[in-house]
Amino acid sequence: MLRTIFAVGALALLGLVALKLVFGIMGPLVVLLFWLAGLALKVAVLGLVGYFALRLVSPNTAQRLKE
Question: What's the Cα-to-Cα distance from 16 to each of 7, 28, 33, 58, 61, rounded to whole Å?
Answer without folding.
Answer: 14, 19, 21, 56, 54
